[in-house]
From TrEMBL:
Gene Ontology cellular component annotations, sorted alphabetically: plasma membrane
Region annotation (Disordered) ranges: 554-576
Alphabetized InterPro entries for the sequence: HATPase_C_sf, HATPase_dom, His_kinase_dom, HisK_dim/P_dom, HisK_dim/P_sf, Sensor-like_sf, Sig_transdc_His_kin-like_C, Sig_transdc_His_kinase_DctB
Subcellular location: Cell inner membrane
Molecular function via GO: ATP binding; phosphorelay sensor kinase activity
Domain Histidine kinase, residue spans: 362-586
Protein name per its UniProtKB record: C4-dicarboxylate transport sensor protein DctB
Presence of keyword S-adenosyl-L-methionine: no
Membrane topology: Multi-pass membrane protein
Record key words, sorted: ATP-binding, Cell inner membrane, Cell membrane, Coiled coil, Kinase, Membrane, Nucleotide-binding, Phosphoprotein, Transferase, Transmembrane, Transmembrane helix, Two-component regulatory system
Length: 589
């Protein structure tokens, strides 16, 4: 039963574990990832702005130096007349300044773009003698007085920021002073950062970066930039792959693949773009944690629900078991009751048979004695008749008639026993029945010197019963009392009648021998008697009991106690009390 009841919860649990848990994990992970990515993107942009400012500050740091030098009379003199001494002196001066500033190069060009003197005059790849007229910063400086440009050095191939200032004398353009600042310092400052940073030129080539192996490699064409980079043929492309969103890239390296968020910003004053790559690990971590938490929560919930279902099934089962046990108990009680009834029936049967035996013996004894006497009276009468003694014959016949009367009395009793259930019930005056019974027995009670006390209420109490039979019961009880008191020193009979709550109680108490405790339970059994043979058949109480039950009442016997409830002021120490309980009824009108 449990297995069947648990099948549904078990299937549900399995479904939740197999489908619900991964689904919840995926949903939570997706939601957390989106949330974390938004955060990360905002942070990356803020960071990028900072790097941008950083980059610009670095570039502007020495922007005033070329301006100052452009005002220098020595420079103007040099440009007007570049004698070897002037060139030499200026070379050393520029070298000194460049060293002090940490700049890549510091040089002076004439109005045709030819470099006359440079801080790297002494280096193999010196700018001296080179013409950079085509460089935008030069053109801008000549035209507008000042020019800026990011570029890769054509001679050195070292990227730098060029700041150029025009040199004028008497409204004549003499040339330009140019300072090139490298990014080594900046790159060193960026190196420990979490982000990977790179600056690309118009062609998408990386010039400045804190990832050494990316320098001079090209951005992939697919980079979502406007305008898109046009990498030179033959340039190494960065090992980037683009994932789902346009700003997400995967970078291969060392056999692993790291994923980044790409943010880009154009650097003003050039065609350069600053990019930052921010690791997506926090997003993944947050997604994983959220997924795990959601999975755990759903799994836990499912298991808890299952446990609850288990408990419910167990409880139902326990209740069913209890029901079964109760049913089994009831069945056993019914069985035992049936057995008991059977035994009782058997016992009753045995008691009936015993009673029948007793009765037969009693009747045989009662009848045999008068029969034997009648026989001898009859025999004697025949002899007396032959002798002509008529008077004696008459006496004998009188004895015979008396004996037949006694036998008739015995059979009358038997008939009464057989007839006890007949008759119709009606209102009977209990007071009247008591008076009648006492008057029937008056002669005997007087002969035995029995003191009779009655306590009967007025008006009379009416009970359910039958006149003659109630009298029969009372005659029997009073007769028995008189029998019991025959040899007693005090012979007192007390009859008390009370009525309350629809019941009348009629008690007949005597000061006789009382009843042996062992006899009390069988007092009402037919043919139970303690009297000598010929004095009692043992039917009186049995018949009385039956009659009273027919009336819907009951008859009980007890021994009187010193404070017996009969109300006597001086109760005898012993004696029996019989109590009739009858239903009261309305007095007939
Ligand atoms: P019987 O009078 O023929 O013996 P009953 O059925 O009237 O038959 O009484 C049965 C027995 O109950 C009596 O033999 C006697 O032992 C006992 N009994 C009845 N009434 C009294 C009484 N008032 N006091 C003592 N014993 C009594």
């Amino acid at each position: 039963m449990a297995a069947r009841a648990l099948e549904k919860p078990r299937r549900l649990l399995l479904a939740v574990l197999l489908i619900g848990v991964p689904l919840a994990a995926a949903l939570a992970a997706g939601w957390a990832a989106a949330d974390a990515e938004t955060d990360l993107r905002a942070r990356a942009h803020a960071q990028l702005a900072l790097y941008d400012a950083n980059l610009r500050a670095e570039l502007e740091r020495h922007a005033a130096i070329p301006l100052a030098l452009a005002q220098d009379a020595e420079v103007a003199a040099l440009l007007s007349d570049p004698t070897p001494e002037r060139v030499d002196r200026m070379n050393r001066k520029l070298e000194g300044i460049a060293q002090a500033l940490g700049a890549s190069a510091f040089y002076i060009m004439d109005s045709s773009g030819l470099t006359l003197t440079a801080s790297n005059w002494n280096a193999p790849a010196t700018f001296v003698g080179q013409n950079f007229a085509y460089r935008p910063y030069f053109r801008m400086a000549i035209e507008r007085g000042e020019g800026h440009h990011f570029a890769l050095g054509t001679t050195s191939f070292i990227p730098g920021y060029y700041t150029a200032h025009r040199v004028m004398a008497e409204n004549r353009t003499l040339g330009a002073v140019v300072l090139k600042v490298g990014f080594e310092r900046l790159e060193r400052a960026w190196a420990p950062g979490q982000e990977k940073l790179l600056v690309t030129d118009r062609d998408g080539m990386v010039f400045v970066t804190n990832v050494e192996e990316w320098r001079y490699r090209a951005l992939p064409r697919r980079l979502p930039l406007t305008p898109p980079p046009v990498p030179d043929e033959g340039l190494d492309v960065l090992p980037w792959a683009f994932g789902g969103a346009s700003d997400r890239i995967a970078v291969a390296g060392n056999g692993t693949e790291r994923r980044y968020l790409l943010s880009s910003v154009a650097v003003p004053g050039g065609d350069w773009t600053l990019h930052s790559l921010t690791g997506l690990e926090p997003v993944t971590a947050r997604a994983q944690i959220a997924g795990l938490l959601a999975a755990a929560a759903v799994a836990l919930g499912a298991v808890a629900a299952y446990a609850l279902a288990l408990r419910r099934v167990a409880m139902t089962e326990r209740l069913a078991l209890q029901d079964e046990a109760r049913a089994e108990l009831e069945r056993r009680v019914a069985e035992a009751t049936a057995e008991l009834r059977e035994t009782e029936n058997e016992l009753t049967q045995a008691a009936k048979l015993a009673a029948l035996g007793q009765m037969s013996a009693g009747i045989a004894h009662e009848i045999n004695q008068p029969l034997a006497a009648m026989r001898s009276y009859a025999d004697n009468a025949v002899v007396l008749l032959e002798r002509g003694r008529m008077e004696s014959v008459r006496t004998n016949l009188g004895e015979i008639a008396e004996l037949t009367d006694r036998m008739a009395a015995i059979t009358r009793q038997l008939k009464g026993f057989a007839r006890r259930a007949s008759g119709t019930l009606g209102p009977v005056s209990a007071n009247g029945a008591v008076a009648q019974a006492l008057s029937l027995l008056e002669a005997r009670l007087r002969r035995d010197e029995v003191a009779v006390e009655t306590d009967l209420p007025e008006p009379a109490v009416w009970v359910v019963g039958e006149d003659v039979r109630l009298q029969q019961v009372l005659v029997n009880l009073i007769g028995n009392a008189a029998d019991a008191m025959r040899d007693a020193p005090v012979r007192r009979l007390r009859i008390v009648l009370t009525a309350a709550d629809g019941a009348a109680l009629l008690s007949i108490a005597d000061s006789g021998t009382g009843i042996r405790e062992s006899d009390l339970p069988r007092l009402f059994v037919p043919f139970f008697t303690t009297k000598e043979a010929g004095e009692g058949l043992g039917l009186g109480l049995s018949i009385s009991h039956g009659i009273v039950e027919d009336f819907g009442g009951n008859l009980t016997a007890a021994n009187r106690q010193p404070d017996a409830p009969d109300g006597s002021d001086t109760p005898p120490a012993s004696g029996a009390v019989f109590t009739l309980r009858l239903k009261t009824t309305e007095q007939p009108s």
